[in-house]
Structure prediction request, 638 residues.
Amino acid sequence: MATRRKKKAGKPRLTPDERAAAKALAADVRGRRVKPTLKDYERVAKIGQDRVVEALISRHNLRMSRVSSLPASYRSEVMTITVPLSMVDTALSRMGANPKKHPNDYSGEAADHYAWATSSIVSAVRLMLVGQVVGAAAVTRHLLERWTLHRAYNWKIVKDPGEAQLDYFARVWSTPQQLGPMIAPPVGYSIDEGLPGDNEVITTDHEEPSPDHLHVELSDGREICPAVVYSYLSEVLHAREFTDAIAWDAGPLLETPSSFPPQAFACASLIGDGLALCMRQIRLATMTLAQERRDQSTKSALGALKDTYSEPSEAEVRADKERDPIDKAFVGSNKYELATPPLAALIPLLPEEGLSQGALRALQNEAFKYEQLLKGFRPAGRLYRDDEFTSIYFCWKRLRSARWAISALDDERALLGDEFNLDSLSGRATKWVVVTEIASLASMWIETSEASSALALCGTGTRSAYWLWLEDDDRAMAVLRCVLEQVARARAWRLKPEKARRLEDRPQTRPRDWLELAGWRRLTPLNKALGEFAHTLRDSRWGGARLLLADLQVDADPDRAPYTARGGALELVLALLAMESHSWIAGLSENLASTLGEVFDSMGLMLDTATIDQTLNHIWTHREADLGPPTFTQMPSA
Prediction:
């Protein structure tokens, strides 16, 4: 007996962190046993709300682990358009782009603005690599609008009276590319009188423009019709097309690779085409900067770049086969393994995820290789393949974003002093994980296809919005606008299915039509503010929209309201999504709905009628708000 006590006393005790990790692991194991079926969630709901939350968090964890095993064909399709990025970034640095600027800061001189565009492409690619096609489509449409505007103005392509938007879009891109002085469009210049904001029309016309026009041909021979790409990108954002690709993030992504939907690859190609078009124009603008500086070598090098991955030469294939196994392990891939960014470069920038010491070390290791290459060294003792090079460049870019996120947390700590609480950010993350996962599950359980598509977009869109918000990216609000519309659409189908059907069947429908049918007309000012972020056209007033979001917060501290504006909008839409998902599930299972109600109530997401009315009435008082001058017409360019 004494010996047994002695052994027990000699056993090392776990530290508090180790105990917490062990507890989290046990919860994750239990959660993964829960199947994504209504029956299984009803079963765990009877045990208690903690078990439901465990199951939902484990779905998030499983989602993060699955993204590393997506089909190589999909990952290649996503990454291939990043080939020119590194050289363009390097050239912009030599031409004055500030390497210390925030990646999502679009202000500054021409080189800074172009560098923002390269960071934006990385943002879109990152979202695609984790299956979040809605967020990627939103960023891509922004870029395509901005660079079409740039192209149209500098080459003096004016929209004719009565000319259809997509016809004009095709004509802008049919004009042969050319070098020459490029300047910022003046205030009031537009490539489109029909957009943007809450009046945006959801069109169902995706045919090739009728007038004769040219396609853009990439270096691999692929042809792109910019007008069709733009049209389909918009439809993705309204959950009218590529619905299987949108729903992929809701469920199939968490299953085996055999459940990979063909639409996901098609959507990756669509978004890749949009990004490739933007990359063409960014590269041309950078070549113009080089020409103005009489830097002929940079101009020539940029002009010779491929748009996509190049085929390896016979010598490269032979060298790869003969390479030492240790060298292969150092690089992280071989001839038969496509090199793509590691998980550390993809996960959200939260203290326990993308900002953890392990994730930062992984990014630092890859970024070091990239910096060595820029100095003329060969970390692997040989030249890298395109896929290897783009992967380490991607990590270098993501490390910059991570460092800025850490800096933002330090600034917040200094601003709030003793009130700063890192746990509040983790608690906030838990809320969006729980709500987005339950919205995704509800989309798989309900039979109304339109409402299912709406909730599927809400799940993946809210994930993207929070991930972008964590990086201080205004385009989080563009994605949130899509979520708000689809929450209203799901609500309309639940409350007024016959009227919702008529609205679906209309040739043209606006996001605000869904708000009105859902009984949320008082949210029009919120939709107006978010709608400004949805586009980068002549009337896009991001600064004014941010100030309006600050005013829409109820009882907010005036001094802090501008800093909490976007987060406040996210929290409101998250609550609306939680309640709508709960209402749909209540029609399927009273037991599960009751437990979910307790979960959401404990998180402050089940707003009572009085609180909802107070919030909506406050928002409605700002319906006449003036958003001030445009944002992007003031941007400098070469």
